[in-house]
User: Fold this.
Amino acid sequence: MSARESWRLSARALAAAVEAGECTPLEAVNCGWEGPAVAWERDVHAVAHADPEARAAGASSAAGGPLRGVPVVVKDNLCTVDYPTTCCSRILAGYHAPYDATVVRRLRAAGAVVTAKSNMDEFAMGSSTEHSCYGPTRNPWELARVPGGSSGGSAAAVAYGLAPLALGSDTGGSVRQPAAFCGVFGLKPTYGRLSRYGLVAFASSLDQVGFFARHTGDLAVAYAALAGPDPWDATTRPEPAPDVSDWDRGVEDLRFGWPANLWAEGVQREVVEGLEEAAARLERAGARRVALELLPGDYAVAAYYLVATAEASSNLARFDGVRYGFREEGARDVRSLYTRSRSEGFGPEVRRRILLGTYALSAGYYDAYYLTAQRARARIRQEYRAALSRCDFLVMPVAPTLPFRLGEKLDDPLTMYLSDIFTIGANLAGIPGLSAPVGPAPGGLPRAVQLLGREDGEGVLLRAARAIEVRGARALLGRAHEAEFAWPTKR
Amino acid sequence: MAIPPDEVRRIAELARLEIRDEDLERLAHDLSAVLDYAQVLRRLDLAGCEPLSFAPPEAGLRDDEPDGRGLSQADALAMAPETEGGFFVLPPVVENLEP
Assistant:
């Protein structure tokens, strides 16, 4: 099987082709790089680091397993021994990690091969992948628009066909929102289900590694291979990860919560139409709708941008120009070495968030801001628990708008932060979330819905995503599988 | 609530960041906008809500026990901007008072 055919396959189909001897691991790994997808990279710029030799070495040592020979794109904030790990920041330029992140180690053990590190907002701080020291990633569906962020490179790479599977990280929606903007599936598991060992920390109590794929089944296989306790991350949940092998079982016994108060105003019409479409598909598949109300997202945004920046200001204190990364030369004393290295090494959005977090934690403001935000976090978690006691999962928007234009929100940080209004709650509450495509809006931009579940409810989310996928998302994705080299349509 | 530019400077010093004069006003404005927005939390009924630092599982977490693994000295030093004799090199921490 040639690269011209195999680049469109799912991860499972590609692994099966390798297993059956229809293609070699090297052919499978290179399919996105030698097939028609490669022309997209010049326009989209999803990749931060690539290395043909590392790819070939990975293919030749690929283990047997459910992902044998499957190329996977990994976000640039996950440590890999064979590629640089820079968080797309000048302060980590040229940095090579001495070890693989646990999730990367488990990927390789399942037979997968890392084929690139993807572009991202610097240190995962952003919602558009415009804050990268390597320049922005563009949305493959319309190049003038953003792919979402912060894992925009991973989402775009899966969308245009560089790889069937990618890893990202989700602190406030950084997997779900770019998945929605790029028309692919994105899963943020329950907090503590995927190890954070080797994930460069942004906000430790919120960070969670997640997946991108073009098929629900690929998410299930990847989750099964990577989830579970890790002795190197004390915040992983100690019991084995939930079984998700019944992702294709249907939704007849499930009830979905429908918090329509959230989109009564301030949400783009096409987004609401996407929600209705997804709900109709779920109902046709036998699921029952439960109308309920949920706390508006404003509170979550406010709590999040205090908690996350406070944790970031602490986590990013380690970048000081001494042990690794960028050092500004010529400093006369230690203090100016720290200050000058950090000021030159961090980009403007990272500096802004460090300042905000330092403010929220500083003497005199700690109670008013940080402590209040932590109490609000408890309240928000209670709200989600109460809602999810009345249903098996929630259906709501991923973002209030379809993909916005490059530069549109760059000068107004608060407006950019508000694009996370529907995704942040899941991180504060620690629950799993899945972004599922529902087909294009008139005009061709992807639409998506967000499914939120109970802790360890990943299996329910995958079943629901599958019910939506079977009757419609396939039509969107079908262009990759049926039309010859013409997906997405270049505009 | 507007944060005065002097306060931004003070915070920046705590965070070991340098702010250029021409960026100061803008930064004060951006930070004030987010902190103003955060005032919505005052409308939220927080009675009985204890501060939650992260969402722990019902079963609790395992003990955080060291397992003896670690980086070798060579690995730990490999990516440092400057090393000497197995140490990280820094500019002077204490001023040399000798003439």
About this structure: Chain B has a mean pLDDT of 89. Chain B has three helices and two strands. Residues 5-43 of chain B form one domain.
